[in-house]
Amino acid sequence: MNTMPDRLSDTLQALADPTRRAILARLAMGRATVAELAAPFAMSGPAISKHLKVLERAGLIERGREAQWRPCRLKAAPLREVADWLDTYRRFWEASFDRLDTYLEDLQTATREAKNVRTKNKRRTGGE
């Protein structure tokens, strides 16, 4: 078992919670104080602080110190790592969809050809 820290796992674990994703969405618009980040949620200050600590440990946010307040800001580098990892699977699905498109086009062509053959046979035999 690997005991080394795994940044991708830390990032995905941090992103697994909808509250943390909402906090990141807010920080994508710019820096915010803990109070500003907590405002939309019906939870205690310590609960928000726990969420912020998870985001900070994952490297997704950074907390500064300005006078009496500690503004938070988004650090997007770990999100790039997730996007790069997911990109491998995007290429897999695109290739799968391309194969499906080819199959469906072949199926439609075969169906049209079969219909044309039936139409020609009916004309030749005078049938319906």
TrEMBL record:
Regions crossing the membrane: none
InterPro entries: ArsR-like_HTH, HTH_ArsR_DNA-bd_dom, WH-like_DNA-bd_sf, WH_DNA-bd_sf
Highest taxon of source: Bacteria
Database matches in Pfam families: HTH_20 (PF12840)
GO MF annotations in UniProt: DNA-binding transcription factor activity
Gene3D superfamilies in UniProt: Winged helix-like DNA-binding domain superfamily/Winged helix DNA-binding domain
Segments forming domain HTH arsR-type: 1-94
Descriptive protein name: ArsR family transcriptional regulator
Species of the source: Dongia mobilis
Lineage of origin: Bacteria, Pseudomonadati, Pseudomonadota, Alphaproteobacteria, Rhodospirillales
